[in-house]
Design a protein that fits this description.
CATH superfamily of the largest domain: Ammonium transporter AmtB like domains
Largest sheet: none
Pfam families: Ammonium_transp
Radius of gyration: 26 Å
GO cellular component, one term: plasma membrane
Family: Belongs to the ammonia transporter channel (TC 1.A.11.2) family.
Distance between the termini: 123 Å
Helix content: 55-70%
Keywords: Ammonia transport, Membrane, Transmembrane, Transmembrane helix, Transport
GO molecular function: ammonium channel activity
Shape: globular
Structural class: mainly alpha
Length: about 450
């Protein structure tokens, strides 16, 4: 057999689409940072962008060392992979198991972006009180012990969820439920922000929230569309349902807020759009456009209601990560059990039994199993990681109260987000103080003159 006939037949169009999708998902990571930054107070704005952005290099290092291998090695177990592909060994030009038209190196770098954005989502609950060094260590350890394990369950050829024919197209459990559960554990272990329940914690910059939403919505086309692993009809369908669910989710949340405030909230629309995107993620390659409307509305409504859980259960999830990502991911998983359509999956050759609409009711049980397992595992292991880290010298998780009062921008980075604005405000304050000091003697002199005239 000639050497030419042994060469895999890769499709350049599929490779180009997957590399483009990789860039799309990368762009989502600073998008998360801007979204979180706008929702926080100004003294913590820059640090939240940096915390999220630093997930890229930390997870890139972890993914290269052993993350990809633990998640996707071809000879792994039901629970976790092995080190066959550590340091990207044997990850070159062989076709990936996901699609014969793609080399494995393309699959590896694409999935690395998923691994990077997941801890970026989770750390939002610890906003305004987490120290940077322990946070970076946590990202590395959490990616190894939580994300890689759950990704192996769901997407590896040998993972237990894959073997029972469970469905998760683009990360309902590995990305959203795992990050939401981790966020809940993080905020519980850290404790509430100082002033919680007394001070008013309002978003300081809705423009940043909108900018972050734009990056996220745009990037999600690569997140869900790229999970078809090719430039094909299924990718187009995934993008279509993604855009539809985001639109209906944003409007649903905004209208729910309108009934209370009689205002069309920009923050409400952005939150609902992200909730709709989260909800459609596990189903984006399995459902029709009309069904995606239901996913969007369900995401917007259920996640809006879930925000109230932090008040009912009295925990301080600063940026509502659990309500949007865990609840939205669970909703998407369960709805997928009902509406998974085998004809949509067949658009690029995948064969499934479908959901309830195809007479396969047991699929709901599989989807619930994934949701419960991912939620319980991520929460418990995250809490354990954080508890152990907090006992290690120099890895204390939380800032001191006086540092928290100053803000993470100054205490952790030494750089405020709004240096020029701070200078202007300080200058105005000094001018006002100076005028008061110079005016007071003049006022007293006038009083003295008036008194002299009166008594003379």
């Amino acid at each position: 057999m000639s050497e030419t006939s042994q060469t895999p037949k890769f499709k350049e169009g599929d490779i180009a689409w997957m590399l483009t999708s990789t860039a799309f998902v990368w762009l989502m990571i600073p998008g998360v940072g801007y979204f979180y930054s706008g929702m926080a107070r100004s003294k913590n704005a820059l640090s939240l962008i940096m915390f999220c952005f630093l997930c890229v290099p930390v997870v890139a290092m972890q993914w290269f060392i052993w993350g990809y291998s633990l998640s996707f090695s071809r000879t792994g177990s039901l629970f976790i992979g092995n080190l066959r592909n550590a340091f990207f060994m044997n990850v070159r030009g062989e076709p990936t198991l996901k699609a014969e038209s793609l080399p494995e190196i393309v699959h590896a770098i694409y999935q690395g972006m998923f691994a990077a954005i997941t801890p970026a989502l989770a750390i939002g609950s610890a906003a305004e009180r987490a120290r940077m060094l322990p946070l970076l260590v946590f990202i590395f350890v959490w990616s190894t012990l939580v994300y890689d394990v759950i990704a192996c369950w769901i997407w590896s050829a040998n993972g237990w969820y894959k073997t029972i024919e469970g469905l998760d197209f683009a990360g309902g459990t590995p990305v959203h439920i795992s990050s939401g559960a981790a966020a809940l554990a993080y905020c519980v272990v850290l404790g509430k922000r100082h002033g919680h329940g007394r001070d008013e914690f309002k978003p300081h910059n809705i423009v940043n929230v909108i900018l972050g939403t734009i990056f996220l919505w745009f990037g999600w086309f690569g997140f869900n569309g790229g999970s078809a692993f090719g430039a094909n009809t299924r990718a187009a369908m995934a993008i279509m349902v993604t855009n539809t669910a985001a639109s209906f989710g944003g409007l649903a949340w905004m209208l729910m807020d309108y009934r209370l405030e009689r205002k069309f909230s920009a923050l409400g629309f952005c939150s609902g759009a992200v909730a709709g995107l989260v909800c459609i993620t596990p189903a984006s390659g399995y459902v029709t456009p009309p069904v995606s409307v239901l996913f969007g509305i369900a995401g917007g409504v259920l996640c809006n209601l879930a925000v109230k859980l932090k008040h009912i259960l009295d925990f301080d999830d600063a940026l509502d990560v659990f309500a949007v990502h865990a609840v939205g991911g669970i909703a998407g998983n369960v709805l997928l059990g009902f509406f998974a359509d085998k004809d949509i999956a067949a658009l690029n050759g995948e064969v499934i039994h479908g959901g309830v609409i195809d007479g396969h009711g047991i699929q709901i049980g599989y989807q619930l199993a994934s949701s419960v397992a991912g939620l319980a595992y991520s929460f418990s292991i995250t809490a354990l990681i954080l508890y152990v880290m907090d006992k290690i010298p120099y890895l204390k998780l939380r800032m001191e109260p006086e540092d928290e009062e100053i803000g993470t921008d100054e205490t952790e980075l030494g750089e405020p987000a709004y240096y020029f604005l701070d200078r202007v405000v300080t200058s105005i304050q000094l001018q006002i103080a100076s005028k008061i000091m110079t005016t007071s003697p003049q006022t007293q002199q006038l009083h003295n003159q008036t008194d002299h005239l009166h008594y003379s």
